[in-house]
Amino acid sequence: MNRWLNLGKWAHAYLLAGPETGGQEAAADHFAAGILCEHDEQRPCGQCASCRRLAHGNHPGFVRVRPEGSHVKLEQVQRLQQRFYLRAAEGQHRVCVVHGADRMTPEAANAFLKFLEDPVPGVVGILTANRLEGVLPTVRSRCQTVLFSHAGPDILREYWIRRGTGEEKARLFAYLNVAPEDEGNGGAAGPESASDADRPSRCVRFAEIAEWVVEWVQAVEGRQGNPMLDLLIRVGREKWSETECEWLLDVLACWYRDVLYTSLGLSDEVVFVDHRRELSSQAAHHASITAVTGKLQDVIAAKRRLQVHANPQLALECMALRLQGE
User: Fold this and answer.
1) Bridge partners of 99?
2) Cβ–Cβ under 8 Å, residues 28 and 126
3) At 145, phi and psi to the nearest 5?
4) Are 5 and 91 in contact (CB under 8 A)?
5) Average pLDDT score over residue span 126-152
6) What integer pLDDT is reported at residue 66 of this predicted model?
7) Are residues 65 and 174 in the same domain?
């Protein structure tokens, strides 16, 4: 996109699509600022009158549309059209940024399609979407599409913190790449059934499993109760899916990775920041770093067994025995 800005040439419409943390909204703002910038060489310059007005939210040639409620509605697109069919107060270029192009009502999408089919001179439309397949195909075909991938761990962690998630959980979600789209009910495709609607989101279920795993590993390392029995009852009685068993192993591997990092003096890099005392205790308890890496390898081996469709309960039982040194 910077190449188009440097050339000073751009299409009349763009579609930036990718996951919520992909960065397409920030990219849309940057691209809009570059198009409106008065500087000839470095766009956006951040210093010209146009850049300053855009930064203060009062540029007459810029309009942003976000979903009202859960959808972008027909009335919003009609207001956008009316504004841009009028002559801009200043400047050669005008930009409209429409977020949630995959959440337009059918009426809004068809109205916006007409806007694309009969473009207003000097107007550039920038659409963002989380689901490319949710954008009306005829709208997609009239836009230059730019695809975005998942954000890196730091951006993902900041996203979860902004959503009110605690630091430790945000770090865990980011480390294991738990994305915002996993917040949907059950992660199921297609129309929701009554049971789907009652099912907790993937994020909620993952967090429940993570909390239990942290408690369980304390029992394993402290040789308290009967961790083997607790594990088999929990997985068997609740009829955990293979995915849920893999989540258990992912969290457990992350825990032993933190124990290893603590042993190496890298406690600032741990994910389980609220459990530093327990990590330090377990790091001191193990005779050597080799003992910690051995447990981490046991967890990884269990996950490999699941990935070749071994019986989940047997794979977990074997791992639990090894972790307890039996």
Assistant:
1) 128
2) yes
3) -95, 135
4) no
5) 88
6) 93
7) no
Which pTM value belongs to this model?
A: 0.59
Q: Give pLDDT, residue 282.
A: 94
142 with 113: CB under 8 angstroms? yes
Torsions phi, psi of 72, nearest 5?
-85, 125
CA distance 13 to 123: 9
- Contact present, 32 and 54 (Cβ < 8 Å): yes
Neighbours of 33 (CB within 10 A): 21
Based on the structure, what is the number of domains in the chain?
A: 2
Closest listed residue to residue 112, CA positions, set 151, 79, 64, 146: 79
Which CATH number does the domain housing residue 9 bear? 3.40.50.300
The answer to which of 2-11, 15-24, 52-61 has the lowest mean pLDDT is: 2-11
At residue 269, what is the residue type?
E
Burial 35-65 (b: 16+ CB within 10 A, else e): bbbeeeeebbbeeeebbebbeeeebebbbeb
Instruction: Write down how long the chain is.
Output: 326
* Distance, CA of 70 to CA of 92 (rounded, Å): 34
End-to-end C-alpha distance for the chain, whole angstroms: 58
Higher-pLDDT residue of 195, 244? 244
Q: Are residues 65 and 175 in the same domain?
A: no
Q: What is the pLDDT of residue 1?
A: 61
Domain that holds residue 213: 153-323
Q: What is the pLDDT of residue 86?
A: 63
> What is the average per-residue pLDDT within 267-279?
95
Q: Quick one: average pLDDT of 37-56?
A: 87
155 CB contacts (<8 Å, ≥6 apart)? 21, 23
Residues 184 and 224 in one domain: yes
Q: Give the pair of three-digit tokens for residue 15.
A: 């579609």
